[in-house]
Specification:
Largest sheet: 4 strands, antiparallel
Helix content: 40-55%
Number of strands: 11
Mean pLDDT: 69
Oligomer: single chain
Shape: globular
Strand order of the largest sheet: 6-7-5-10
CATH class of the largest domain: Alpha Beta
Low-confidence stretches: 23-95, 272-280
């Protein structure tokens, strides 16, 4: 409510209060609009409840304070005027209450939006890495990069089981987060990046960004990760690539990208993919 509206509403209340002093014993409830709330269903029936005037039936809430009697004619059908003769009270401080309720409703709306966004994030995001999960990735993949060729990059950590076996699952979680971060940075901020499950990741980039594939392969070929135990490990990941042409579904490119990734993984098996490289 603006200051002008608040001032106008208070003027209405003052005018009605002066009318009450002249009226003697007649009373009613004043709204911010200057309208009236009827006291009984009988009076409501005789006047204009059909137009949406609420009925209090004599009840007084904690927000209503006893005030001077007020009386105002309610025009039903000209030239007849009806007056309320029931024991109700003037609403005290209603303008402030309206502001308070409005702020409360706004806060509730903001909170609902926040909860909705949080639930959506939880439904579509991997809680460990913050990347899109399988559902989130495929939900967005259909509309991503519409009308242009794309590159699908499939990533799988080499011998990830050894990380968990040698260092524990908490270290394995650290490795997953590091790989997710490296993949996101290498693919670029415009890429669609997700964790499909376990140690499998995927990224989709613009087909013209051939350098993205090189950045991903270079970044994940030998990724040193320092552990909280002051031990560092080197983790490698195999990367496969396939082209997704305009009009094809994402599934059409994932299979060849996975095949390319597994071919690279076989070649890398002769290399050391997980090792302790430094102890302090």
């Amino acid at each position: 409510m603006t200051a002008v509206e608040r001032h106008r509403g208070r003027r209405v209340l003052r005018v009605l209060a002066r009318s009450a002093q002249r009226a003697g014993t007649l009373r009613m409830v004043v709204l911010t609009t200057g309208g009236a709330v009827l006291a009984s269903t009988a009076i409501c029936y005789l006047s204009y409840c059909a137009f949406g005037v609420p009925v209090l039936d004599g009840s007084i809430s904690s927000q209503i304070a006893l005030a001077a009697p007020v009386a105002v004619p309610l025009l039903v059908a000209p030239p007849l005027n009806w007056y309320l003769a029931a024991s109700i009270t003037v609403i005290s401080g209603l303008l402030d209450d309206v502001d308070r309720v409005r702020r409360q409703l706004l806060a509730e709306a903001v909170e609902r939006d926040r909860l909705h966004a949080q639930l959506e994030w939880q439904a579509l995001r991997d809680p460990l890495t913050g990347l899109l999960n399988r559902r989130g990735f495929f939900d967005r993949a259909g509309a991503f990069g519409a009308g242009r060729d794309l590159l699908v990059i499939s990533v799988d950590i080499d011998d990830f089981k050894q990380v968990n076996d040698r260092f524990g699952h908490s270290v394995g979680d650290d490795v997953l987060r590091e790989v997710a971060g490296m993949l996101s940075r290498a693919a670029g901020e415009d890429a669609l990046v997700g964790r499909l499950g376990g140690d499998e990741f995927i990224a989709v980039v613009d087909g013209a960004d051939q350098d993205a594939v090189g950045r991903v392969r270079a970044g994940l070929a030998s990724l040193p990760i320092t552990l909280s135990t002051s031990t560092a490990v080197v983790v490698g990941a195999s990367v496969g690539v396939a082209t997704l042409t305009v009009g094809e579904s994402i599934d059409a490119a994932i299979a060849p990208a996975d095949l390319d990734m597994y071919t690279m993984k076989q070649r890398r098996r002769v290399d050391r993919s997980v090792d302790v490289i430094r102890r302090r």
